[in-house]
Amino acid sequence: MSQLAMSSKSITTASGAKPRVLVVEDEQDLQDLLRYNLSREGMDVICADSGEKALELARQKLPDLILLDLMLPGVDGLNVCRTLKNEGATANIPVVMLTAKGEEADIVVGLELGADDYIPKPFSPRVLVARVKSVLRRTGAAEVDSNPEGMITLADELVIDTERHRVTVRGEALNLTVTEFG
Length: 182
Known about the structure:
Helix content: 25-40%
Radius of gyration: 17 Å
Shape: globular
Number of strands: 11
Largest sheet: 5 strands, parallel
Strand content: 15-25%
Distance between the termini: 40 Å
Strand order of the largest sheet: 3-2-4-5-6
Structural class: alpha/beta
Number of helices: 6
Order of helices and strands: EEHEHEHEHEHEEEEEH
């Protein structure tokens, strides 16, 4: 077996559900590729092919992460990101920009607007999936490779992970010392 084999470990939200990813891409072939690779890694994928549809779906479905192309028909990706980051219900949804605009100035603008990562095209699907998982982990939107036996959930709001010595309340990680955790 190759050492580069894809991970078969699970990825879930704090409630145990599959993380929902909104893919915003107007090129159908690329949208299909992204849907296939993210679904294969245990994510629930919904797609939009325009900025307007992305805003509508983000507000209705409240995904755990948005994978956002910048060059879209109608409302462009930068305006989609700006709008979502300025609305209370969607402000904390992590955004990963995926675009052909790979110049330093473009990357800086995207990150300053609130993107959590920026992936220039062309990209490796395996690297993209790894970076999506990394953002989900880092932002607390999902637990990757979690061990359910080490999890204690109280009132669906307080989650204690005894394996990782981590506590979250309503999805927000608490910074506890070793003594406080014990």
